[in-house]
Amino acid sequence: xxxxxxxxxxxxxxxxxxxxxxxxxxxxxxxxTTRAQYNATFFAQKTYPTGSGSNPAPVFVVDVNLxxxxxxxxxxxxxxxxxxFLNFDxxxxxxxxxxxxxxxxxxxxxxxxVTDVNSxxxxxxxxANQGADNIGVLxxxxxxxxxxxxxxSTGSSSSLACLSVVDIDNDGKSxxxxANYGTNNVGxxxxxxxxxxxxxxxxxxxxxxxxxxxxxxFxxxxxxxxxxxxxxSTGSxxxxxxxxxxxxxxxxxxxxVVANSGTNNVGxxxxxxxxxxxxxLxxSTGSSSSxxxxxxxxxxxxxxxxxxxANYGTNKVGxxxxAGNGIFLxxxxxSTGSxxxxLSVADLNSDSxxxxxxANLNDNNVGVFLAR
Length: 372
Known about the structure:
single chain; 372 residues; mainly beta; Methylamine Dehydrogenase, Chain H; four-stranded antiparallel sheet; VCBS repeat-containing protein
């Protein structure tokens, strides 16, 4: 598989395959539209403290202690720590165990991923330390506890904003891709084995690219090197903050969904099938909502991927149900804590219903919305 990466405003990055390897396509299609029925509802959030002044920003959900129960991992921007909440099995969680994200207390972790980078079948934590201009890697001991962080520089004043982890050179080892907000580039750190990484190779996103209202797409040559970026507008003043890539209209081509914090909407860019994208369609998230994070999954079990968004400005989670063919209904909202910065979706209590997890930046806690 040839992975492609995309960035937005140097604040978010995601890697996926967006271009089909098949040279022929069927051009005649039959479209059936059915009316979506919203049947997913949630209990009010239950919160778990992350500590005074912690300001939790990124959140990730995965089973870190190999007990088949998804756990919560959060990056505490304010105190430079990674918090791990182990799952009791019923969607409730132990108090957090904390680990330094890097060296010192001003590392400001603002993005993370959890995946196995040293091929021991245990998920490790990879974190973007914006305040320290480096990436921290915390290896999993196997019981859901982690070794001290090993760090890799992303360059002076890089002010890295977001990272993702995937095998981009097809060698079976997970590599790191990071959006360097301060230096206007994307950095790639190739995994050389056992979870150690080469110095980054960077790809320019353009002078002063960080304030632009665009999505940038870099197509992979197939060996872990990339074509120059192609950009797609998300609108003047849109300030896109988060991106998710998945097929939303059931044509087997991954589409782009973006949270436009400046224009208070979610943008959907449908894939033509050759790695290029249509102009975005937008869906309102409400006045002054400032959506910061977006996640796409089938929330109401109708086999259509829906959009879940963290509305930072209005302290709400919004759910936009897919009505079919990549068209979305107006959002339903649930109240969060103060300034929800990021979110994730997973079945936390083994009832086969997706639950919502949100990092409440100003309330210093993680909120869990269990599905009814």
